[in-house]
Amino acid sequence: MKQQEVNISSQEIEFSQTTEVWKALEIDTAKRQEITARGQSDLEIPIISVEHVSLDYRKEKEQLPVLVDVSLTAYKNEFVTITGPSGCGKSSLLRIIAGLSKPTSGVVKFKEQPVTKPTTQIAMIFQNFVLLPWRTALENVMFGLSSRQDLTEEEKKNRALKALDETGLSGFENVYPGELSGGMKQRVGVARALALEPEVLLMDEPFSSLDNLTAEHLRKEIYSLLINPTSPIQTVLMVSHNVEEIVELSDKVVVLSARPAHVVADLKLDLPRPRNKKSQEFFQWVDKLYSLLA
Amino acid sequence: MATFSLLEITIDIIFSWIRMIAALLLSIAFSLVVGILAARNKRAESIIIPLLDVFQSIPILGFFPLVILGIIAVIPGQLGVNLAVIILIFTSMSWNIAFGVYEAVKSIPQDYIDLSSMSNTSTWQRITSLYIPASMSRIAYNTQTSWAVGLFYLVSSEILTLGQGQCSPSCQVNYGIGVATMTFYYIDNNITGYIYSVVALIIAVVIWQFVFLREFAIWAERYKFVEEPRAAKKDPLMRFYSWVNHRSISKLFLFTHDRGVTRFSSSLTRFRRGIKYAILILVAIFAAFEAGAIASSGVRIALPSLSRLASAEGTVLAGLAVSFLRVWYVYFICSAVALPAGIAIGLRKELYEALSPILEVVASIPAPILLPVIIVAAARSGEVVAAIIIFLGMIWYIIFNVMGGIRSLPNELWELRKEFNVSKWSAWRNIYIPSVMTAFVTGSITAVGAAWNTLIVAEYFVPFNRTQPVTQVSIGIGKIIVIAANSGDLLTLTLAILSMTAIIVAFNLTVWRRIYHYVTKKYTYNR
Prior knowledge:
The complex is a heterodimer of chains A (294) and B (527). Helices cover 40% and strands 22% of the residues of chain A.
């Protein structure tokens, strides 16, 4: 019974917020263009730069190349998507950027400093939400902050509450993940990343475990949350193989080949925002990506 | 009619339960340390896992004489005896809980580990907020069976009479339900008191099942990553079955649990290396206990002559051979009963649902407490008493596995039977028995392992106030161990335990593993 109630209200939230999101997006676009114009001079320093990264997977005595000489950059206020055929090593690349695994050769730099281990300035949103089932939404968000010695428990809690509020979860602080719908679970995942106030946000197929309708709403909302002047997030790197999603969200697309993966294309996707999914240009981009991926 | 006090029985049960709870807490603490270490550290894993595996396949009860002598040497009196009993129960409970923790932590999805790394959590934070909670449901789950196994060891250790000559005043605990039953029967000749205390134990088992074990399991459900299918959750017997299954598909035979069969060969070589460590550590533990026992009991410290060593080993090997045959002939009788019974019960849903809670309780009644009854029933024939005790120690593993196996068969098989109008006899021969073969073999592996443990009480039994055994077989390894322990013959004791361990481990690695591989290859649906 309780489960149902929560699910219904989660749907309501997702619907009621849609219009607001659209409004937010419009305002946001105007601001964004302004920011981009202002920020032109900063473009020389990438927030994240992946330089000639190669990765071998050692199996028994063989060495299987996974990534071959991959380079890409993400500048301030850029939304970069990494795509490619499934199993090509997109997620491995994201893990290297996160500092979770080491490349066989090459280097990843965050503001010109090599990334050698995970840092709280780089946060991640996972495909399968990765929530601890025995902790409430609030406690899950606070888990991300558990290593922050500089914050008191009270400050951590306030930050977490604020992040939950931003992702539309106020009122659900004390609910366990098991009682939340897929969309709401991912909102908790987003809140956990936001609470860290990271400069770089990594997303590993964040919408692919959600149904289409939920994913649609969440995409718009997350975009406006991430790329806006008040957000500390400077750049977003997403792994995805949903072509429409890529065209809807990205400023730049990096297409990888099948294994061993190298960069096939590095494209600037300069459609105006909000993007009209029914427009001619949108379809052209979708076609172009499909042909690159095929 | 002799009198007895219900209050006294209650006090005895409370004493026994305190020992059990202490052993359980110790087991959980031990399991968390060892399990987490093995799951998160490759080097630790390659030592700990084979070691746990050897420990879980050897008859721990055989250790008891050494443990008690060693501990009493350091801490004399009731405190020492109680500690020894708790340690014995602990050794019977802990291996499977430790495996549970190891597997739970090992199977935490990589994403969660990544999440912790990205949040820069400290090792301690990771242990408290990720590893321990993630282990909780497996701990609760494995505790259910560990408790039943522990009861057997509790009663056995309480009623075993050891080394009158060596520890004074006595190597016996003063209170406990095992002590109570034997005192009523053999010292007071109070049959009513004996019956009441056995009934009291059964009631305690049932109450404990409902107020603690079940509640613990339900509470721990929320510490699960993935929801299990409802059927498995609802059905306590299915839970038990899958645990038994789980335990006996021991890493000793496969060591492939979450690695996939493809990497079998490389894990096996690593495992073999691990076995060496395991045996070395085992020998070291024996040496330590013996040193303690020798130092305390004032046994002449002299290296045994080669001829004495050879003659002792000769006796041990003869005993081993006879016990081996004894275990196996009882195993065949047991299978002849349990296999058809398990299938017959499993096939009928109503019968299965009605019987499963009853069987669960019956299975947790420790056989040693029934010794007086069994002795009377067996007309004091030592060989028959031994057979009955071994039988009771084995049957549950087989019957639960077979029942679980038949319950978990795909529905299509039932339809197949109806569709082609297969006769009853043909259905048994061609569908039911082949279908439960894997479950039957896994049950058998655990059953035979458990049987070796029962030998210590089955082959030779001296009640407290007697000097002569009331039941004994003519020859057997269990008898050799108990007599050697009573007379302080550490040489024979050590040889007996080491030889038995070696035989069991060797047998598991060669014969059982082959049978298991053959059966899983031949009788499986998902090929």
